[in-house]
Amino acid sequence: MISLYSTRIAQYLAAALLLLLASSAQAGLWPQEERVPGGIALLEIPQRSAAAPHVYFNERRVYTHQRDGRWYAWVGIPLSQTPGATQALWRTRDGDIALPFVVADKAYPTQRLTVAPRHVDLSAEDLARVQRETPELRGAMDDFHPVRIALPEQVTLPLEGRRTSPFGFRREFNGQARNPHNGLDIAAPTGTPILAALPGRVVAQADYFFNGKTVVLDHGLGFTSLYCHMSQFTDLQIGDRVEAGQVIGYVGSTGRSTGPHLHWTISLNGARVDPDLFLTEQQR
């Protein structure tokens, strides 16, 4: 009797452990919420079915993730978003249901940089090149591919180094105001390996006028990451699958750059969001 009782207790504990591990695995990666321009709103969706819900913000479909049996939308808030009340839309068979939230203001500091005049006052030839490249790059960053890729518990920091430009800086080049800094800059010696932050597929790999040698990875459902100013690529091709921590290129200073560094951008539903929201305290 004692042996049978002990066996049942052991089986119960083993089953409980498996449930706990399954729950942890389901939770997966979870960003920090900050409802500001350049931040993320985590919105619970009152849907209990296994099928992923369809949620939209600013007419773009939003990444959704299931945790502890509940669905959540990871709403990327653009840096250009006006603070105040807004809403995402949960699309159902009976029509759209509003998921309201409030975007708070955030004052980002200003950064003043001096670069070669060619990168500020573009020639007709350079302007034409930028106009050709922009749709390709934005398409790679902003397209929604209905593929769910299993994410690890934690993002891999693409590069260890000194942070030179945080996310969100209002930037001036040679005294002229430009768009806010939509990524995180990390300085390191030329040739330092750059790692994929998350598993995904290569959807762009080219040498662009502003970004230099650049790789874009698609992590599924409108979740993408971009790595700029590389000195060289690895032997990856468009469409290749990469794993988190895999080398995808090497630090350089190509494109509009003042020194060797990585410019790293994360995008959700076409909005550039602060990479720090995906990092642990130890990684920041």
Automatic annotation (TrEMBL):
Residues 35-106 form the Peptidase family M23 N-terminal domain. CDD domains: M23_peptidase. The keyword Signal applies. It holds the Pfam family Peptidase_M23. Residues 1-27 form the signal peptide. Residues 180-275 form the M23ase beta-sheet core domain. Keywords: Signal. It comes from the Bacteria. This is Peptidoglycan DD-metalloendopeptidase family protein.
